[in-house]
Write a structure and sequence with these properties.
Strand 31 and strand 32 form a beta hairpin. The termini are far apart. The C terminus is likely disordered. By secondary structure, the chain is mainly beta. The chain folds into seven domains: 77 residues, Immunoglobulin-like; 56 residues, no CATH class; 109 residues, Sandwich (Immunoglobulin-like); 88 residues, Sandwich (Immunoglobulin-like); 121 residues, Immunoglobulin-like, CATH 2.60.40; 36 residues; 124 residues, no CATH class. The protein contains six helices and 35 strands. The chain is flat, with a radius of gyration of 70 Å. Strands 28, 30, 33, 34 and 35 form a five-stranded mixed sheet that branches. Strands 10-12-15-14 form a four-stranded antiparallel sheet, with no helix packed on it. 12% of the residues lie in helices and 31% in strands.
Length: 700
């Protein structure tokens, strides 16, 4: 369009008479920068070029105003300016240059291949120029170009190939098993997994000595040693190796086999080696009582090198380990240097070192295990302290316990124990039955056991072993007699067992006993308090007067004879009946108050009764006064004349001497009385009773 404004259009109002009194104004998008208007004519011009691809249309507003007054002549109007398209843009490739790939050897496809069998190994990348035209390629149209980079991708169309047919490797004979001997490589022109190579050793004479695997990073074959080498036995090995592709493409199998082979020759290098023991380890045995200096075994090592150097033997010293053995440095014989004890250490592990005299830096070690054999020095014992029980209703031949034994000695092939009862003890209650399998049963020899007669039995058991010499010991089995139910289950073996069988623990049993004790104390206190209140009630009245006959006698019961009588006894006529009779005196006469001898007693009682009836100080109720309990609690009971029994004149009082030393005087009085009466009767009854003369007994 150039630099001149481009006419776009014209504004015109019907009120414009051409007298230049109308002014046109323009507002909206791009006014002033893109569009302008001539105020008097209304012509609209574009100040610069418009691009439809940038903005396709513009919206503007126009108005006509009076030049003189400046007032609008008509309302503002809106219009749109559309930008028309012209062919001013050539075609463009938005993402160029482009990259593409196609497998080598591909047939015709989207991208036409000009050459057949395009091989990536010959040329891998190609560059193609592509042009695009608009207007359908007509004259005047615009064009755009871009570049497409085409890469041929790899396919497995090449087999691996060794660079040479023979590979030479060398390895020292001292190389350890698993170490690398050398590397070989078969080249494959392909890429990625198509170039992966697998190596294998073809079975043959030397194939068992070596192995080969692939290095994943370099695709090389690493030859490793599978077995130890010995230069003195064999100096060279030869074997064949094959290389092949693990991933094959069936489209190219017609090109030939995808593998190759080569020969590997390995030369063994001679190395000065340490001595070699005849065994990899040694096992020896000796008895624990073997004297010191006795040979228990020997080790042997030799130098396999050509020089055949002499060998010297030694025992490797270990810190904090006792040395029980010595070794001959030349012969390699091992002897004991200290006494051995199997119970302290059943095995000893030592390390023997063999050193070459010609080269002391070369040495080898071997482990020697020395087992200490057992000497039968300990007797067998019961495996643990046994405590058995037997039911009171046990039958003959009933097994009540199974026994087993242990032995601190170590036999060669298992323990063998024998059980029996001691020969010098004959047990009539139990016997021992050996089952022949290192166990025995305790069997009853009688039926029925009584716990009250004997609650526990001690049964001796003799246990013997089968060693040499035979060792034995005697153990004791405790057998408790218990009460059992019909099924043979223990009900109780003691008082404590009864409670435990009821499910009560020791703590619960103590608590129950404590509660019972507290209850008993409360009952005793209650009874004592009740008696005390009853006594206070009887003594509460000052008018409660009663007579007490207190009699003191030199040979009486002491304080027991001064025991006054409670009014409660007077109100309880049964008290006299409940008084227990004396066991040491058998009464031969009953008290008969109706007899003439008791006339004074009746008179005395009637007098006292009359006084109580007429006395104004007597209690306002009937009461019984009795005087028959002085001296209650004494061995001789009361000595009161009121309560004294009326005895026949012929009563024998010699039993009074059995009442104790306090009645010596009383017994003497009665003895003297009998002597006097006997003297008076002798003139009348001469020769009647010879025992009357000798019936007097003097007190001790």
């Amino acid at each position: 369009m150039g630099t001149d404004p481009q006419y776009v259009g014209k504004l015109h109002s019907d009120l414009d008479k051409g007298d230049n009194l109308v002014k046109y104004t323009l507002s909206g998008e791009g006014v002033g920068s893109i569009f302008t208007v001539e105020p008097t004519t209304g012509d609209i011009h574009a100040l610069r070029s418009l691009d439809r691809e940038e903005k396709p249309y513009y919206t503007l507003r126009a108005q006509a105003v009076d030049v003189l007054t400046g007032r609008p002549l008509e309302p503002e109007s809106e219009f749109i300016i559309k930008v028309q398209d012209i062919n001013d843009n050539e075609p463009k490739f938005l993402e160029g240059p482009y990259s593409a790939s196609v497998p080598e050897m591909s047939p015709i496809g989207v991208i036409k291949i000009a050459l057949p069998n395009m091989d990536r190994e010959v040329k891998e990348t190609y560059q193609v120029l592509i042009q695009a035209k608009d207007m359908g390629g007509q004259l005047g149209g615009l064009a755009g170009t871009t570049i497409v980079n085409i890469t041929l991708t790899d396919v497995n169309d090449n087999p691996p190939r060794f660079a040479k047919s023979i590979f030479h490797l060398r390895v020292p004979e001292s190389a350890p098993v698993g170490s690398s001997v050398g590397r070989i490589k078969a080249h494959d022109l392909d890429l990625g997994k198509n170039a992966e190579v697998e190596y294998s050793i073809v079975p043959g004479d030397s194939s068992s000595m070596f192995d080969i695997y692939t290095d994943e990073h370099t695709q090389e074959g690493i030859v490793v040693l599978r077995k130890p080498l010995d230069y003195e036995n064999r100096k060279a090995y030869s074997f064949k190796v094959e290389a092949s592709n693990p991933h094959l493409d069936s489209r190219f199998m017609h090109l030939g086999p995808y593998k190759d082979s080569a020969t590997v020759k390995v030369s063994v290098l001679d190395v000065d080696e340490p001595p070699v023991f005849s065994r990899s380890f040694y096992n020896m045995e000796t008895y624990e009582d073997t004297p010191m200096g006795i040979v228990i075994g020997a080790v042997t090592a030799e130098d396999l090198d050509v020089g055949d150097s002499p060998i010297r033997y030694s025992i490797e010293w270990k810190k904090d380990a006792e040395n029980y053995f010595d070794i001959d440095p030349v012969e390699g014989t091992i002897t004991t240097s200290e006494a051995l004890d199997r119970e302290r250490a059943a095995k000893h592990n030592i390390t023997v070192v063999a050193t070459k005299v010609n080269n002391p830096l070369l040495y080898s070690r071997v482990s020697v295990t020395i087992s200490v054999l057992d000497v039968n020095e300990f007797p067998p014992e019961l495996s643990h302290p046994y405590e058995a029980f037997v039911c009171e209703d046990a039958k003959v031949g009933q097994v009540i316990e199974i026994l087993s034994a242990t032995d601190r000695d170590m036999p060669h092939v298992g323990h063998r124990f024998f059980f029996k009862s001691p020969r010098d003890i004959r047990n009539r209650n139990f016997t021992i039955r050996d089952y022949g399998n290192n166990t025995a049963g305790v069997v009853t020899r009688k039926a029925g056991f009584w716990r009250r007669e004997k609650s526990m039995y001690l049964v001796p058991v003799v246990v013997e072993d089968s060693g040499y010499p035979i060792q034995s010991s005697t153990g004791t089995l405790s057998v408790r007699v218990c009460a059992c139910d019909d099924g043979g289950s223990v009900l109780s073996c003691s008082a404590e067992a009864v409670f435990l069988a009821m499910g009560l623990s020791t703590g619960a049993l103590v608590a129950i006993l404590l509660c019972m004790l507290i209850l008993l104390v409360m009952v005793v206190l209650y009874v004592a308090l009740k008696r005390h209140k009853k006594k206070d009630a009887l003594m509460s009245s000052k008018e409660d007067v009663r007579d007490n006959v207190i009699h003191y006698d030199d040979e009486g019961g002491g304080e027991e004879d001064t025991n006054a009588f409670d009014i409660g006894t007077l109100r309880n006529p049964k008290a006299l009946q409940e008084t227990p009779p004396r066991r040491d005196v058998q009464l031969e006469a009953e008290l008969d108050l109706d007899s003439e001898d008791n006339e004074d007693i009746r008179a005395y009682i009637q007098q006292r009764l009359q006084e109580n009836h007429t006395s104004t100080s007597a209690p306002p109720y009937d009461s019984l006064a009795t005087y028959a309990y002085e001296g209650e609690g004494s061995v001789a009971e009361s000595l009161s004349s009121i309560e004294s029994w009326v005895l026949d004149a012929e009563e024998d009082y010699r039993s009074i001497q059995d009442w104790g030393p306090r009645f010596k005087t009383l017994a003497g009085i009665f003895s003297q009385r009998e002597s006097t009466q006997g003297a008076e009767k002798r003139p009348e009854n001469k020769g009647s009773n010879p025992r009357a003369e000798g019936s007097e007994e003097q007190p001790d």
